[in-house]
Design a protein that fits this description.
This is MYND-type domain-containing protein. GO terms for molecular function: zinc ion binding. By secondary structure, the protein is mainly alpha-helical. It folds into three domains: 130 residues, no CATH class; 106 residues; 158 residues, no CATH class. Helix content is 61%, strand content 1%. It has 19 helices and two strands. Helix 9 runs antiparallel to helix 10 and helix 11 runs antiparallel to helix 12.
């Protein structure tokens, strides 16, 4: 990992001899003929790329199995063997992510993408720290767009029967999409600034690539097309607020399917409150360490949290953040605290959807009041990405979104009745 994650932006890609020497300098056997021979062979760019690919395959085999249960719980444990801690994966610090991105740009092999994905999952606090820097986010966008563009060209060539096409091109695109889809999945609860990774037109370009790729994927690989549609739903949320109208029909159907079990706006509202109650960062919009999950600096999750004693939903990193949020200029918690408290008196977010819906009715939470709560809880994340002048219209936009969720639910109920 020291070799894979070393900053080599100043080194020519065709000659990595001095980088190799730096990596093995501390080895007690660095004077052996075998070591000298290995270092000498790194003068070949092709050999270097082969070595990196092989190292990535070895690293990927050392990780514990990535299960659906661990992804759902957002917990990835280190084992007793290597890697046993975050320092094993990022021995040179957070900038190791930039080095891994560079290999993705240079090497057309999905093993390197898998390595970056695994390091992200196991070392998310380090990822969030590194990509708070605008230069790192720009590098991320450059690499991802280049990687997608290459995979799409290969997919187009493969679909047309060209000799330059590769049968695994759709799988390569899916591997990159898997990595991208983890960012919003985890970022919604851990890193509010995840939207910035897709700024500067990146989300729109990725959407154009995804929409071009989906029709080219063969029927026997339908799950890959479905995965791309899932990514498109997340990317639409980065492009504009009213993203339902801009979705392609097949992506909108995928969105409908995902929301079938949500029972309209009440189910979505229930999920939002569950995420708010379980998220691992401070709820204050102006928190100076809002991008740092609890325990990210100390290595454990025992860092003290301060939960609102009234609504019992929002938590803070300090009493000062809690006091500031209570009287925040745009999102004062005092505006919604009593409503959330009344709601909890009837049902908690963990209740089933029918009981939760009845609790919302009992607490007089209509669609307008619900939109106000949405704006208060997550409006800062939307406005930080969009124009702050939209704030006064944000409640109206939230009303439209919530009504659209009800339409989705009603649409599916009608379809199910027809099929029955």
């Amino acid at each position: 990992m020291a070799f894979l994650t070393r900053d080599r932006s100043g080194a020519p890609s065709s000659a990595l001899e001095h980088v190799s020497r730096a990596v093995i300098h501390a080895c007690p056997f660095n004077s052996s003929p075998l070591h000298r021979r290995c270092v000498a062979t790194y003068a070949s760019a092709d050999c270097s790329f082969t070595v990196v690919t092989s190292l990535s395959l070895v690293v990927n085999d050392c990780f514990p199995t990535l299960s659906n249960r661990s992804v759902a719980a957002k917990k990835f444990k280190f084992g007793s063997a290597w890697p046993a801690r975050a320092q094993d994966l990022l021995p040179l610090g957070c900038q190791g992510f930039l080095a891994l991105l560079r290999w993705i740009l240079l090497i057309d092999h999905m093993s390197v993408v898998v390595t970056l994905t695994r390091v992200y999952l196991w070392c998310r606090p380090a990822f969030y720290t590194e990509f708070e820097k605008s230069s790192s986010r720009e590098w991320f966008r450059t690499v991802i767009l280049s990687r997608y563009r290459l995979s799409l060209s290969q997919l187009v060539a493969s679909a047309s029967g060209s000799a330059t096409g590769t049968p695994e091109s759709s799988l390569n695109m899916c591997t990159v999409s898997t990595m991208l889809s983890f960012i919003p999945d985890f970022g919604r609860d851990e890193w509010p600034m995840w939207l910035r990774l897709f700024d500067d037109g990146c989300a729109a370009q990725l959407l154009s690539f995804v929409y071009t790729a989906i029709p080219l994927i063969s029927e026997e690989r339908a799950p890959i097309a479905a995965h791309l549609r899932d990514l498109a739903v997340d990317l639409h949320g980065c492009v504009n607020i009213d993203y339902f109208g801009s979705m392609a029909p097949d992506v909108l159907r995928r969105f409908d399917e995902d929301n079938l079990s949500s029972c309209g706006r009440f189910g979505h509202f229930k999920s939002l409150l569950e995420r708010v109650a379980s998220r691992r960062f401070c709820s204050a919009p102006d928190c100076p360490v809002v991008n740092e999950p609890y325990g990210s600096t100390s290595g454990n999750d025992s860092q003290r949290r301060f939960r609102c004693g009234s609504c019992r939903l929002l938590q803070y990193c300090s009493r000062e953040c809690q006091r500031r949020h209570w009287r925040n200029a745009l999102q004062p918690h005092r505006d919604v605290c009593s409503t959330l408290r009344d709601l909890r008196e009837h049902a908690t977010p963990e209740a089933d959807v029918r009981k939760f819906r009845a609790a919302c009715v009992a607490a007089n939470i209509d669609v307008r009041r619900m939109a106000v709560i949405y704006t208060n809880l997550i409006g800062d994340r939307v406005i930080k990405h969009y124009d702050r002048e939209l704030w006064h219209n944000l409640v109206d936009q939230m009303v439209l979104m919530l009504e659209a969720l009800d339409h989705v639910s009603e649409h599916h109920v009608a379809l199910r009745q027809q099929s029955a």
